[in-house]
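Just wondering, does anyone understand these tokens?
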Amino acid sequence: MTTRNTLDIAGRTLSYLDFGGTGRPLLALHGHMSDAESFTGLAERLTGGWRLIALDQRGHGHSDRPADYTRAGYIADVVALLDHLGIDSVVLLGHSLGGVNAYQLAAQQPQRVEAIINADTAVALGLGGGNPFEFLRTLPYEAASHQQLIDEMGPFASFFGPLIRERADGSWGLPFHPLDIIESEEQVHGDHWADWLASSCPALVIRGGRGTPGTIPADQARAMVDRRPHTRLVELDTDHFVYTDDPDGFAKAVNEFLDGLR
């Protein structure tokens, strides 16, 4: 049975989904503009008795907006959740933003991470300059009704419309603030090769093979595997959103990797 739970960090709420089970924990970290619910498809396909837990990362989903979106802040949230749950070490699955958080935690606290599943997350990010989320700066994100927000979004409604949710006060809005995403993206840019190579636990890289914006460049993905021990690569015929574009293929890759950890 899936339950939604929260923990308090100095007055700031973090929300997470526990998809149930008593097996070994698998903690999933979503990317920008997403939330814990995006891993529902994986939870339905997960085998081997694993207990999937998915965090609404700071400023996303049901979690409160923080004072900042620093690298240290994101990682501290994950550690706080593990401590809250009484989990000493865990397998981390991260997509995009969540993938950076996963391998940086493994670099900083290797004793807390048993293995990494990197869902299409590069290690050299934004080095060419520019923020791909600048277009969000004028995106409407809340309104009195669902239809009003759809209308105000215009052509963006086809992409962001499915993310709109009703709030406790009866208004409607996105599960993130657009300006927060811009700031968070700025903070995640950088050359993170040292972090990727700092740990040696088993790792799986799942790359979107279509090479669309956001996917790991093919040569970088191969180098990530060649330069890091105990790491293998699976490519799916998808865009950057590997776990939603091919849920069956993604689950198969994850399940096979997790089976190998036994």
Notes: The chain has a mean pLDDT of 97. Residues 3-127+178-260 form a domain with the Rossmann fold fold (CATH 3.40.50.1820). The chain has ten helices and 13 strands. The radius of gyration is 18 Å.
